[in-house]
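From the pipeline queue, job 12 of 40. The input is one protein chain; the requested action is below.

Action: predict structure.
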Amino acid sequence: MHLANKGDKSILAPQAQRLYAEGHNLSSISDQLGVSVTSLSRWKDDSHDPKQPMDEWDRARTQKRGNIQRLRDLFEGQLSYMEELHPSKITSSLMDALSKMGALLERWDKMEKAQRVADDVVKEVKKAGITSDTANEIRRQILGIGA
């Protein structure tokens, strides 16, 4: 694994926080970004305002999970509402809204599954002796993201 250079915090900390909000742990983020777990932990701690109950990283993670759950709840509510309507009352705009929410949820679920698969593959290839840089390239290819 190549380690990030001093001064890369301004570029890497926002990426690390985004990955953390998406559910990655600090070890996984360390592997992906080439930043030590100690540095990541320090960056995370630095984002904590003592007047707030949690740091910015945990708040972002909670908010992201909350938004997805609200979308799931909204989808379920809209679906239940439409199931109770007489078929003649179901408009194209209601169907369109339900379809768009369903597509967002499906994309989110696929992304979460791809991240789990990528993490599992990276663990296995590292056990086989492949370098962290190569393992991270494999992860990027699985997730379909640029280097």
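Job complete. The two ends are 14 Å apart (CA to CA).
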